[in-house]
C-alpha cells in the first residue's frame, strides 16, 4: 500500500493529495463516507472522479447520470488537457481562496470549480460539432450552479471563481490563464451585434464582485478591475480600473493581482 501511494504521488501529486484527504475525511466524518467513496475513493484518476461529480450534479429527468458520465469520460479521454487544466484550477482555488483548506473541497463542494469543469466538457462538445449537447450542458450548469458560460467561450487554466453566483460569460469571450473572478461578474456584449462581441481577458487578471466588462475589448495581463465597475474600453496591462464607467485609477499594485486577491484601492495603486 505504501509503495502504491508513493507511485501515485509521483505520477499525479494533486490526485494523490485528494485521495489522502478523502480517506482522512471519511475517518473524521463517517456520515459523508458514501459521498466521498462514490466521488473520490472509488475512482482511479482525477478525470474519472471529475466525470462522476459532474454527472451527479447535472443529471435530471431529461438526461440520466450515466449518460452524462459517459459523455464526460469521452471528452476527457479525447482531450487530456481537460484533466490537466482541472489540476491547475484546484491549485488555484486552494492558493487563492482562504476558505479552501484542502484540495478535496473544490471537487466535492465548490460550485465555481464544478461549473468550470462542466464547461470544459461543453466546450469540447462545441468544438467537435455537438452543439445541441453543448447547449444542454450550458443549460444545466446555469440551472444548477447559477453560472452561465456559453460553450463556445474559451476559458484558460488556473481559474478561480470565488462564491461563483450569477457569473455570465458570453459566446465570444476569452478568459486567459490564472484569472480570478468574484460573484456577479459579467463578460458580456453591448447589444445585438453578431460575430466577435465579448471581452478578451488577459492572463493573471483579477475581476472584483459585480464588475461588468462589456463589448469586444481587451483587458491586459495582470490588471485589476474593482468591484462594481462597468468596463467599456480597453484596459492596459498592469493597471487598476474602477468606476462607472471604469477609468484607470492606478497601477495593479502587484505583479500578480489574481493570485494575491488584493482588492483594496490604495492611493497611487
What does this structure look like?
This protein is α/β, with parallel strands linked by helices. The protein is built from 10 helices and 15 strands. It has helices at residues 2-11, 13-28, 33-41, 46-58, 65-78, 81-96, 104-109, 111-127, 131-145, 257-260; strands at residues 147-149, 154-155, 160-162, 167-169, 174-175, 180-182, 186-188, 200-201, 206-207, 212-214, 218-219, 224-225, 230-231, 239-242, 247-251. The strands form 3 sheets. Strands 3-6-9-12-14-15 form a 6-stranded mixed β-sheet. It has a 5-stranded parallel β-sheet with strand order 1-4-7-10-13. Strands 2-5-8-11 form a 4-stranded parallel β-sheet. β14 and β15 (247-251) form a beta hairpin. α1 (2-11) packs across α2, α4 packs antiparallel against α5 and α6 packs antiparallel against α8 (111-127). The chain is globular. It starts with a helix and ends in a 9-residue tail after the last helix. The model has no long low-confidence stretch (mean pLDDT 93). Its EC number is 2.3.1.30.
Short synopsis of the structure:
With 269 residues, the protein is α/β, with parallel strands linked by helices. 45% of the residues lie in helices and 15% in strands.
Tag the structure with descriptive keywords.
amino-acid biosynthesis; 5-stranded parallel beta sheet; 269 residues; transferase; 6-stranded mixed beta sheet; alpha/beta; 45% helix; 10 helices
